[in-house]
What we know:
Blueprint: E1 3-8, E2 11-16, H1 26-41, E3 47-52, E4 56-58, H2 77-85, E5 91-95, E6 98-100, H3 102-109, E7 112-115, E8 120-122, H4 136-144, H5 146-155, E9 159-160, H6 161-165, E10 175-176, H7 181-192, H8 211-225, H9 231-244, H10 247-262, H11 265-280, E11 298-301, H12 305-316, E12 321-324, H13 328-347, H14 353-361, E13 363-366, E14 377-380, H15 386-399, E15 405-408, H16 415-419, E16 428-433, E17 442-447, H17 453-465, E18 469-474, H18 479-498, H19 502-512, H20 518-525, H21 527-540, H22 549-555, E19 568-569, E20 578-579, H23 581-594, H24 603-623, H25 630-640, H26 650-657, H27 659-670, H28 684-691
Parallel strand pairs: 2-3, 3-5, 4-6, 5-7, 6-8, 7-10, 11-12, 11-14, 12-13, 14-15, 15-16, 17-18
Antiparallel strand pairs: 1-2, 8-9, 16-17, 19-20
1,4-dihydronicotinamide adenine dinucleotide (NAI) is lined by residues 301-307, 324-326, 330, 381-384, 388, 391-392, 409-411, 432-435.
Amino acid sequence: MSASYEVRDGVAVITLNNPPVNGLSYETRRAVAAGLDQAQADASVRAVVITGGGKAFSGGADIREFGLPKALAEPNLLTLIRMTEESSKPVVAAVNGVVMGGGLELALGCHYRVAAPKVPVALPEVKLGLLPGAGGTQRLPRVLGVETALNMIVSGEPVPSDVLAALPGQKLFDQVADGDVVAAAIAFARSVADQRPLPRVRDLKASHPNADAYFQFARNTVKAMAKHFPAPPKCVDAVQAAVTKKIDDGLAYELELFKGLMLTPESKALRHAFFGERAAAKIPDVPEDTPQRKIAKVAVIGAGTMGGGISMNFLNAGIPVTILEMKQEALDRGVATIRKNYEAQVKKGKLEAKKYDQRMALLKTTLSYDDIKDADLVIEAVFEEMGVKEKVFKQLDAVMKPGAILASNTSTLDVNAIAAFTKRPQDVIGTHFFSPANVMKLLEVVRGAKTGKDVLATVMSLGKTIKKTAIVSGVCDGFIGNRMIEQYSRQAGFLLDEGCTPAQVDKAIERFGFAMGPFRMGDLAGNDIGWAIRKRRYVEHPNLRYSRTADLLCEMGRFGQKTGAGWYDYQPGKRDAIPSSLVDKMIEDHRKELGLAPRKIGDDEIVHRLVYALVNEAAHILEEGIASKASDIDMVYLTGYGFPLWRGGPLCYADSRGLFNVVHTMKRFAANPHDDAAFWQPAPLLARLAAEGKTFT
Ligand code: NAI
């Protein structure tokens, strides 16, 4: 049974019991319904209390049932709420802990609500591209007023119970009880046991003094803020119905909107990302109960761009860090940058001065390996040269205590080769942070051939501690993210050769939703980085075709924002990308050299050549087992590469287009004489899925 039943002092107490958050699963709903029936039938019972076992009242729908028939099986949530509302004996919700989504909707179906203080209260459905579908949009405005309710529904953000209970005129909570909230609810239930009629939220009125003007204003605001998402404006429509329609009509309207949103690609994408985030932590051959190593002290080698940002992640989580460098000046520079970053946060009011001091107090610096030998984890972030990595890892192998995890932040080098510099390859792993490392969510965790399962499990859970989306990648050139982006960049180059300007390509893919197009991105990251990689790559693979324009750009000394010029011109101190006539001429001259006549290329072709380049490489990565599931690849792109969230990542997007269509379009690209026919050869996995009418996800 997923809920227990007992009678205390003439009050039936139904306790939800479905860890971790008392999700309203089929079994739980059935048990609550049975409890309600039992209470009605028992003449000695005068009232009912519904509460949650453990720390939560209820977090809402049980996400394990999402998409399964069980989620809707009777008694469904609507039925359960109706049973509660129609109970002949008063029902009191004892809100002992977090109350969200369907959990809050159930509480709103009760006649009274007694809450513990500081309980997070939320209707978070909008975060999955939905709206509350079991009366939340109709009942919450009736107890909290239209504006407070709409703010909660549109943002999905939790508000503490005591804050809500202090609002003038609120009817959400009848009492806030310190201490034993169930005992308080039982006492409350006894005090109202004989009162009739029973108060029902549905009988209250939701109103607003300037309803029309207010909803117009809300609609405009929400549309501007949530451009690509259909759910927030629908939340406004639903809450407006609470004011303009009778409750049953409003409930029917809410349900209709909910069903419509379920089918939108945006909601599908958000749910895909929601589950993708959770699935990322599950590694097929690493069981969840794999023992983990304790990480209480961290060392970072190198105080450059990455070392400083990486250190901040641990300081933010309260974990002490020692940074090691070769020279004192480098340490001073690194620490000054960390200070500057924190001070900016303090200035903006995002960080308390006290916390800043606490974090800095956790930071130590050193020039000696002797000072880091006790660290539980050491992350190397020195120059990207195998010789330098070799020196550092041999040194680490010599000094670090047994059982310490040795991680490399390398972005292009072979983690297995790095592990082989030590006598403990089982302790070596890649932790590929993205720049700026204190901001970017993505962490690629690179699993070497010999990396221990406990090491992998430890680093994955550490990723969570420092609030990253940690995704496992196997060892290959570029890992998941950069290996795919290389193909995307190659296509971007071909597009220039064939007639596009950098600005045209960037605008097209930015309209598709990318945070930044490939050329603006190159200027930000530094075009010299790719140049260095290409010099190596195309020596190893002389037959690999690519556009020479990026090399020509670097030969002009245009490395990007840092040199004041790249694919675009930049005014001193500004970041606005201004199209450059010099660059346009360079591209035209190169095109003439190739003997190509410029062609007018539409946005659609630009977008699909770039995105399908990602998709095809992703299919290779999946098939090779570099990524263990499609959603991992999508999470890499959503959290590290600015892929539009409402499209769910490259593979979710490809699925939404239909893989048959994707392959068909790729064949068309392959027939373009200037493009690379080999490039567009569908990866075997993609071809197979398309032929079988299947999807990646
Ligand atoms: P950086 O040049 O800014 O910093 C490297 C630091 O390491 C310098 O301060 C240098 O003094 C120090 N260093 C060099 N050799 C050392 C040694 N033997 N012992 C101690 N310290 C030493 O480089 P950045 O950008 O921070 O890159 C570091 C690593 O992170 C590289 O492997 C790079 O590929 C990787 N990476 C860089 C990203 C970026 O966007 N910059 C993104 C992801 C990974």
